[in-house]
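Form 12-C: Joint structure prediction
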Amino acid sequence: MRFLLTGGAGCIGSHAGVALLNAGHEVVVLDNYINSSPEALRRVEKITGKHVTVYEGDCCNEADLDRVLDNEPVDAAVHFAGLKAVGESVRIPLDYYRNNLDSTIALCKRLAAHGIKRIVFSSSATVYGDQQPPMREDMPLGVCSCPYAWTKWMNEQILRDAVVADPEWSVVLLRYFNPVGAHESGLIGEDPSGIPNNLMPFICQTAAGMREKLFLFGNDYPTPDGTCIRDYIHVMDLAEGHVKALEYAIEHTGVETFNLGTGEGYSVYQVVNTFETVNNLQLNKETVARRPGDLPVSYADAAKAQRVLGWHARRSLEDMCRDAWHWQKLNPRGYRQEEDL
Ligand code: WQD
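Section 2 - Result
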């Protein structure tokens, strides 16, 4: 099969590219590189020994989409492209709504015009809002805590309505929990621009000496050690979930939603301790006040993806911490080369 990956040069998109190529599929990428690098795709080719067809363009732009779809017959699309920073989405909500909703609408319109009515969408566990975990796909969705999460929620609704209007569509909504780690080769990984917001990249940059200290946000939550609990999932497990989701989309019509998580929660202290132990180092760290907006506990009920897709996460927290640090050590500046600085 041949799949279009919008945002395929990003962190999750590039890992999914590796998983799809390794499973014997072909991959076409559309990316505007506003928050990613073409170098990631060269490395996907290096890891797999296979070719990636690449188009530079914007998924909100129907002409860019047509340029790809006129030339590349694909069986389905995975829509990774989107703005994804929670804090930024609070500062510039209109940009988030415009980009994240326009791109989905434009993509669906142009796919349908080319007779391709299959899409896998990158949603997020943030659509559950502040509910009692484990999060189940059939829970009523909660109140989202930021514009980023609302764009995921709204995109899910847009795609559900597209299926109601045209039952030939096949839509798979994937709700990611907390993806971390990197491909075991250390060739591709997460390359945050500026100061990382998320825990694992901040840990890695602190271990590398790029940040003076890791701040741990709050140890007075109602959890066993007082720190927040999340469902961290290795990005290669997440990537392999996309292979199963696409294969499912090929065989079914209608809409299905799946959590992609391990089903297991770890606290901030557990993540930090595991990172220090498996990598045999000590982080300079300090526990400080809570970060506003953080939920105490979030983890998936991962049973549906196992039951329906035959997929479950196989890699451990140790693997996530080892692979994240391996990528960081090999690529202290991410995909940027010395001469770019
Ligand atoms: C995890 C825990 C922090 C940084 C967000 C988005 C979600 C998804 C993943 C999409 C929390 C604590 C963090 C630090 C810390 N993103 N922490 N020190 O908030 O669960 O989810 O990222 O792109 O949609 O909402 O993940 O990694 O930011 O935080 O103590 O420097 O680590 O307080 O408890 P989160 P996270």
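Section 3 - Comments
The two ends are 39 Å apart (CA to CA). The pocket of WQD is lined by residues 84, 86, 124, 126, 178, 197-199, 202, 215-217, 228, 230, 268, 291, 294 (CB under 6 Å).
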